[in-house]
Write a structure and sequence with these properties.
142 residues; alpha+beta; 3-stranded antiparallel sheet; two-stranded antiparallel sheet; 6 helices; 5 strands; 15% strand; elongated
Length: 142
Amino acid sequence: MAVDKTRHRYIVNHMVKYSINSLDAVFSALGDGTRRAILARLAEGETRVTDLAAPYEMSLPAVSKHLRVLEAAGLVTKRKQGRVIYCSLQPQPLMGAADWIAFYRSFWERKFDALASYLDKTADTSPKPANADDQGKEQNDG
């Protein structure tokens, strides 16, 4: 059966819809250390592309490719003033990703709490294995 890739799937979390495609784009963009560093720099404020590129030993076109990935994920916007291009951080997609992570963190915490509770119950009722030192004393006494 063919899958219709043009349809958008949604995760419903706390009555908010997040497109899986946009979450994929955000997590993909965050998967690269250079892009995470660019976002950290943009969190300080709007920055020129040339200033963003300065700390890296790569060409300006290579940095521009990173910026295009961030822009496609909705994490960065660009504006042009004369010949200078400025970039700004757009935090909304990060908040969507954080909500998605928080949902699954809560899910796994509940699962681990249930496991801990089960282990506590079974530890109290299961027979304790004999200590190897105690077995040696019983054999020597007999």
